[in-house]
Amino acid sequence: FRLGSYNIIPLFSDTALYARISAEISKGDYWLTGPNASDKPPVFFYVQAAFFALFGVHESVAVLPSFLAGLIGVVFVYAIGKQVHSEVAGCWAAFMMAISPTAVEMSGVGLVDGLLVTTILWSFWLLLKQHFFWGGVAIGLAFGVKQTTLAFGPLYLYWIIICAIYRDPDPIRSLWYALKNSVFGFSIVFFPVVYWSIFLAEQRLKIFMDIIWRLGIVEKVPAGYGKFQGTIEWRISVLSEWFSQMIGVSWHFLAPAFALGIVLSVGRVLHSKMNGRTPRLYDWLNLGVVGFAIFYLYVYVFHLHKLGGIAYLYPVFPLVMLSFAFLIADLHAVTESLNGTQLRRIIVLPGFKLLPWLLAGILTIWLLKNSINTVKHNIKTAYSAPSQGLNSVSKRLEEYVGPKSIIFTNNTRWGLGYYLLGVHNRTEDYQLEKHLKYMKSVLYSEPYTNSYILFYRSLYHEIEEVRKELSGQFTLHPEFESAEGNFRFFRIIPENLNYTDPIAKQGLVWNNEWEQWTKKQIQQRWQPDNLEIETRINAQTGNQEVLLSVSPAPFHLLFADSVEILIENPLMNVQQSIHSKWPIFMKYEKIEIHFILRDQTLEEQVRAKYPQITNLGIQTSRKEIRVFASGKMNGDLLEIRSSFRFSQKNDYTDIHLREIQINEWDLFWLTRIFKNRLIQPLKINRQHLFDSNLVRIESHSRVNHFYYKGSR
């Protein structure tokens, strides 16, 4: 079954994201300090990266950890069932785990959940063996795979207590020993993961923020606002369908069987207590498993903001399998015990003896039928899946992507991130629900950027909606369609309108009319106090030079004191200039830009934006930029002294702290622990309106100079 489902579904959404992160690790980003944002802890990524390092970065290798974990999980389910109950229980639990539809499907994709479930089962098996330290380590590793493990806290505590004190002559001492060793083992893994989340991960504490957001503890996290999805009735109906799909048996059969198992365990525990005997271990554990499953579903139905997918139910799946296996083994044991009594001649006994075999036969046929259908369905739909062909499409996209291009696409960004690994690419969502607001801002503010949009088959209906939103300004020009028909790629270009602007008659050569037109456009968009444009001939080179002097000038989120822009031998792109209402050059020898930002100007703008700052001093020197700020926060006086310097990277500029004191407390030692950014980088490395990139930053004498250069 599992081989039939192996790697037939392409890496597309989450699976592609995980594979890309793991591939980055295998290529040298060992601490995940780059832009490898995920809401999952790092253990799965390191496991997958190890396979990539051994066998190479490939789709089939990305799925291998989940596939092997699924097989090992079957072994652990068998071992737990056998040790807790009997050989019959172990075999039935392993059989159901091996062929149930969702378990088969999870083994064939590169999600974290297969490894998560196996690690959870491993931890339960170790605790059952009373290896509490190693059980704690396994619990920590399960948390390191996916933070959902924290929800298993009550069940882990219950399992540790039962396994520690069951038939022990000194239960208090045994419980203390078990808890101490389990916590110690768990801490060995848990605290490094927490350290990674705080001090190494690019998006700090994201794995914990995701938990509190999903539980509805907070309404807003950096990812967005939380909103309770659907009604309670709808959620219950969805979960019942998911359980039927996950186990391969209708929930109408599951519910009474589940209830019967609970009644049998409760009855045996009460009967043993009434007779002064110690209840059986598997009855205690079965009650804990059932109680936790009910608690898990309660939280899932009534508290989670977002249901997620069937993968969020998958961790409780083996527990349900064990409970069913215990029920079948119980019925089998009862018939065997009756067979050895004088009741064996009772005429109804043969029918009762057939009950467990009948139940087992129904389950076997049901599970086999659903598993076979699932494998057939996966194979059939894989070849016609909307995501099929993304790999070949990505190869074609390599000729389009680059530093001056952007691809807008929904639902395929993570897939492109994996298949375009190592290729400079920039992708963004186009967000129809927001009327393409961000896309339009890019189209208008980045005239030199080649803009494209990629649709996959499930979203073909959005092509006309996007066209309608852009109508009158931009149009979609078809570039290609994938061989499978699953992807359509368009270039976004200005609409060819019948322009009436008189400048359209001036042609490509820069002249006085273009100078006056440019002055008018800059004045309207930037509204500077001073604006001068000088056109001259360089005596040494003979080149035509256009010098723009503007003050003040917009610079990132601030205003610079002034900017000087020098363009050599410009040839105008008439249509693009009129469409953008901005001077766009078809050709030029070079562009040089020089922004000047004085400390005094920066102080004034910061104080205007943050009125709670009562005193602010900025001193720029060649060595560093020193900042002193004081003000009140929540009624308390706060004084901050710090110094920093700019560190220019390829796509952004970092701010490196050199000193920081808060109310005379030196905290620089603390900042050195953080390997991730305490301050978000400045996105100032490109001036899109003039097709120029940052080449250097100079700071001295209370003035910062930013130099840009463009060439064609």
Automatic annotation (TrEMBL):
Q: How does it sit in the membrane?
A: Multi-pass membrane protein
Q: Does the keyword Acyltransferase apply?
A: no
Give the matching InterPro entries: LipidA_mod_glycosyltrf_83, RgtA/B/C-like
Question: Any transmembrane segments, and where?
Answer: 61-81, 102-128, 148-166, 178-199, 249-270, 282-300, 312-334, 346-368
Might you name a Gene Ontology BP term for this protein? lipid biosynthetic process
Specify the Glycosyltransferase RgtA/B/C/D-like domain's residue ranges: 39-196
GO MF annotations in UniProt? pentosyltransferase activity
Q: Name one Pfam family in it.
A: PMT_2
Q: Which UniProt keywords apply?
A: Cell membrane, Glycosyltransferase, Membrane, Transferase, Transmembrane, Transmembrane helix
The Gene Ontology CC terms held by the record are: plasma membrane
Location(s), subcellular: Cell membrane
This protein is called Glycosyltransferase RgtA/B/C/D-like domain-containing protein
Q: Which organism is it from?
A: marine metagenome
Lineage, highest ranks first: unclassified sequences, metagenomes, ecological metagenomes
